[in-house]
Amino acid sequence: MKKLFTLFAFACICVASFATTTAKYNVTATITADGKSARSLTQVLDVTFNGTTATITLPAATLGNWTMDEQTVVANNATTTTGTVAVETAINFKCGTTSYVGRTTKAATYTVTSGKLSMTVEATVNGKAFTVKYEGTEIASRTQNFNVTANLKKENDQASLRQVVKVIWFDSIKKCDIILPAAELRTWTMAEQVVKNASYTDAGVITLPAAKIVIKDAKNADVNVTVNSTTSTASLSGSALAADIKAASPAGDAISIKYEGLDAAAATKLNSAHMATYSSDSAFKITTSGVKAYTCLVDGSEIVLLDLDVTKAIPAKTGILIYAPNADKVEFAASTETPQTINASFNSLVATTSQTTVSGTCYVLSNDASFKQYTGKALDANRAYIPGAKSAVKSLNIVLDDADAISTVKAEKANVKFIENGKVVIVKNGQKFNVAGQIVK
């Protein structure tokens, strides 16, 4: 029977618990093997913390004819400061081309104090004693959470859901760990897990390694899926994350896990009038309900609002004004849909998809319902401003009417034009008129 790759419990997978986190340490590994003199190596020790366990990746090491393969061991009763690898834990070795399985002879306890890690692994293999002592300092990291749309595909079956992907960046070594959220599907279940040690460039290109992803099949058996590092792609552009993970099951089924989304921290907080400007360097959709969105056109001393369709994607690098009377912040998600058409000639808002310094004076949204002239420090990324050359007035005031959301916008000492229900409306002395001079109710 054909296996379906469809959503089983949407509510269960929309929220990520983020139990998983990772850390890396620059360590000196001091090795003694088979009575040979100690050798010191500079290595990176990798630790993944998940609940009360810690998975420690021991880097490969060589002394004489003996090689310890790169491998993972599990520490129990673990925290970010301590944990213990049990006695009799298997450690894989090679002598020349012959493989051996050694066993730890003592419990190996790691401790982290003020960012410094210490751990000693003692094992016996083929009757010979091995000791590896690790000591080093944690590599600085930063964490980003991304609100993403996840598109999952197995052969011709697919599902789409909203999730959160966590990325931990280690800038000094240009590596990142990508924590994939759990996904529960009808026939496959993927627990929260990590694609470790992806490399990245300053241009935002992320190279995914041939990592193992463990997925449980319909019989609850573990299926090891290997990421295809050649065909998989990932990137970070401004606040937008995109990752297309390609893999194949041992049975040959083609698997694709595609994430697209924006930095969750980039969700825009609203001012006291429940307004904000926003822009992104990728097309996006507004995911918060009850939000109205507009572009703004300044014509001399007048400003015109053009209503946007908030059910459709908004183009990249487009500045918009948002108003959410019942919210304190508005969230967005990157979108691959064809965005609605916005004529840039009719939008005076200029997007700031990165931190931007404006030469001269401009208008920025203040903490009330107005754009005010501004000359000063750089403008924040993912916002929008109005160039000062468009008008000589000191402020552009936005007048709110909760029944109609934003009903009028006016410049100081000016009549006002705006678009309402697809028609031009003129406001004079607080009264709305159409272009024929008739009163609009």
Describe the overall structure.
The protein is mostly beta strands. The chain folds into three domains: 21-138, Lipocalin, CATH 2.40.128; 141-263, Porin (Beta Barrel); 267-433, no CATH class. The strands form seven sheets. Strands 1-2-3-6-7-10-11-12 form an eight-stranded antiparallel barrel. Strands 13-14-15-18-19-22-23-24 form an eight-stranded antiparallel beta barrel. Strands 33-36-34-35-37-38 form a six-stranded antiparallel sheet, with no helix packed on it. The chain is elongated and about 100 Å long. The model is unreliable at 1-18 and 399-414 (pLDDT under 50).
Topology record:
Blueprint: H1 10-13, E1 20-33, E2 39-50, E3 53-58, E4 61-63, E5 66-68, E6 71-76, E7 82-85, E8 90-95, E9 98-104, E10 108-113, E11 116-125, E12 128-138, E13 142-154, E14 157-170, E15 175-180, E16 183-184, E17 189-190, E18 193-200, E19 205-207, E20 212-216, E21 222-227, E22 233-237, E23 240-248, E24 254-263, E25 268-269, E26 275-278, E27 284-286, E28 292-299, E29 302-307, E30 320-323, E31 329-330, E32 332-334, E33 350-352, E34 362-365, E35 370-374, E36 383-387, E37 395-401, E38 405-411, E39 416-420, E40 423-428, E41 431-433
